[in-house]
Amino acid sequence: MRCRAGRPCSSRSSAGSGCSPAKLRGTPKPKTVRQRLHPLTALTAAACTAVITTAASSWVLSITVTAAVALGAVRLGVAGRVLPAAAVILMPLGLSLLMIHGLFFPEGSIVLAEWGPARVTAEGLAFAGESAARTAVPVLVFLLFSFTVSVPDLVTVLTMGRLAPRVGFVLASTLTLLPAIAGRLDRIRQAQEARGLVLRGGLTSRLAATRLQMVPLVVALTSDAASRAQALDARGFGGPGARSSYREVVDSPAQRRFRAATLLAAACMVGFRLVQSLPGLGR
């Protein structure tokens, strides 16, 4: 039996559709940049970006990197998680910097407003804005890393490397703890609402229902920790010797060269700032 193209078909279904088995299975989709990126490459890029921008101490560079990271989060489809999480961290920090340095900056000479001992100075506002911009970079880059990295691949890389397996487990637990808690809380809320407990509404009703959510949350997290400990013990997690993994993480020579160059650039920037800070050498 032959298909429409004149080639023999291996099954009746393929003959009926006029397609070969390869066409029926479909060609595999090419990997995206996010999937091809090695976990250590993403981690190195995030850490070195934070180090370089902090050492450079330039608000122009900090704002540029912040905008680039935000655009990258949009392109990767994780802006809905990265940006709100960054806002929760940065807004209280920015307000505290504004209150401390914007109102009480002893070195300020250009006074914009004054209320008793509090003085709003241009230098204080500039210092607060520069500090907030410099802090926003590490927050955003590490949030972007945590929401885009493949945690199983990262654990595999760390386990197969020279680091202790416990280090990889701690790092993976840190990256997955908050999403796990959020998902568990949502399931608890849905289950309690299904039983007639109203958890929505004003602030008072939400505070009253907090205790009813926290108790099952703590119990569930404790049970998960015990189950995870048993699974790790059965796997021989704490035992000595080499380990094998069914996951294979491909690391290309180009990515290894990129990591080396990025680490070298970060070390040079830190060394340059240290030399500048030495008396008589920074002038």
What's the quick description here?
It contains 11 helices and 2 strands, in the order ααααααββααααα.
Largest sheet geometry: 2 strands, antiparallel
Q: Shape, please? A: flat
Order of strands across the main sheet:
1-2
Q: Please tally the helical runs, counting DSSP H or I stretches of 4 or more residues.
A: 11
Number of strands: 2
Strand content: under 5%
Can you give the helix content as a percent range?
A: over 70%
Helix and strand content put the structural class at: mainly alpha
Radius of gyration: 27 Å
What string gives the helices and strands in order?
HHHHHHEEHHHHH
Mean pLDDT: 77
Distance between the termini: 85 Å
What are the segments in which pLDDT stays under 50 over at least 5 consecutive residues? 1-6, 10-26
Can you give a write-up of this model?
The longest helix has 32 residues, at 203-234. This protein is mainly alpha-helical and 283 residues long. The termini are far apart. A two-stranded antiparallel ribbon has the order 1-2. Among the domains are: 38-149, no CATH class; 150-227, no CATH class. The chain has 11 helices and 2 strands; from the N terminus they run ααααααββααααα.
SSE diagram, text form:
Elements: H1 12-17, H2 21-25, H3 33-36, H4 39-56, H5 59-76, H6 79-103, E1 111-115, E2 118-121, H7 122-148, H8 151-160, H9 165-194, H10 203-234, H11 253-277
Antiparallel strand pairs: 1-2
Helix pairs in contact: 4-7, 4-11, 5-6, 5-7, 6-7, 8-9, 9-10
